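Entry 14. Ran structure prediction on the chain below.
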Amino acid sequence: MDADFDIFIIGGGINGCGIARDAAGRGLKVGLAEMNDLGSATSSASTKLFHGGLRYLEFFEFGLVRKALIEREVLLKNMPHISWPMRFVLPYHKDMRFENDTPTSKLLSTVMPWMKGRRPAWLIRLGLFMYDHLGGRKILPGTRVVDLTQNVVGVPLKDKFQKAYEYSDCWIEDSRLVVLNARDAEERGATILTRTKVVSAARVDGQWEIVTEHDGAQQTYTARALVNAGGPWVENILRDVARLNTSEGVRLVRGSHIVTRKLFDHDKSYFFQGEDGRIIFAIPYETDFTLIGTTDCEHENLSQTPYATDEEQDYLCTFASQYFERQVTRDDVVWTYSGVRPLYDDGARSATAATRDYVLSLDQNGAPLLNIFGGKITTYRKLAENALKKLSPLVGGGEPWTVDAALPGGDFKVKDRDRLVADLQADYPFLDARWALRLIKGYGTEARAILNDAKAASDLGQDFGATLTEAEVKWLVSKEYARTAEDVVWRRSKLGLRLTKDQIVALDAFMAA
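Output, structure tokens:
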């Protein structure tokens, strides 16, 4: 009996949508079910970086760092609208320390006990040299030393920081990344079911029989293979949905972030190292704000929605205040968000030390089941490729193809983004510079499809505030699976930082009509 799908995926985060896109592009029949909005959990609550993971070098995770560094530029080239190069400033001070339980810390404590856990400058230089060369670079510039007493990046910092190292990584609009992968998957034939919960999955006659529920109505599908990309819920899906036992699991680690009023007047980010060995980032965010994060806290109960606790907010403010001349306080915080990272449970003693690499576990006791444990946003495309490498011998499909395939709207070169903004303003004179930049950063070359033949802002329909128009909302509903104001203002964009509560209520009413 023919199955409805070759592959059915549970979970509409970045890993699920990445696998759906890759599989659909290989000619496979793909279904995906997400119980909420796409990317509504971990995948929209990251620090929003494509990065190699500089601090992972302290854990000797050289293979993970190399994979991620190679991927940075692959991804940047394929989505230059939602990803862009960013320079990070790492201030140096002789009192910087390692986290006590890293392999590097233990090694240095043995061979250089007089350092008492401090990071010597030569070691940071060595780490950054490796970071520059492990994965190769064609677009991003390498590391340089910065004199903080002479450079604008030193102005907001305390006087004790006089030297810094500046290196490259990339920004990524994480929730838009998820949606664009889903869109591309659907355009290649996949069926994307949002707000659809999988209530059961069972092996029946050599296939998977999957029962979903949407708006109270149930539907049954069949598939030759099942992919469990549930993220934090991966174990729940195994035990409660598929009713299987497993010894594998994830360690749930909450990462919280705060968004403050703008703390500095340049476009570079900071990489801060604490005297406790932990690190945080301070990143220019949405033009007028600064993003600070993240924490690493065990999150025991998935039924509890993650949020940035008072203690976590205080921790991040205090941490940042060790570097900034001006104290960062809770009064500066305008928004917080928090996500649960499902790290593969490798038995590490602390949340910080747990591996960020992923594990793909294939169960062939009947119809194939592929379980996705862990992972990080930078390696999502490679994870999808490796998932198909395991599944292709069982379900067929073509060759890998995503390495040089642009996401929707990303069919231009990294260096051409500013030109696209200028051209958009020239062709639509009613756009100011900020509005045009927001549209290109969100939609790339597809911004013109939203604006269509508009001659004035009034041609775009109802104005919801902060440059959000009816034309854009209708695009997000018809093309990008948005159903509520929250989907629009916190995941498809970050306009929630600029809209009033009344404006968001009005948007919700419009979308519900």
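Residues 62-78 form the longest helix (17 residues). Will compare against last week's run tomorrow.
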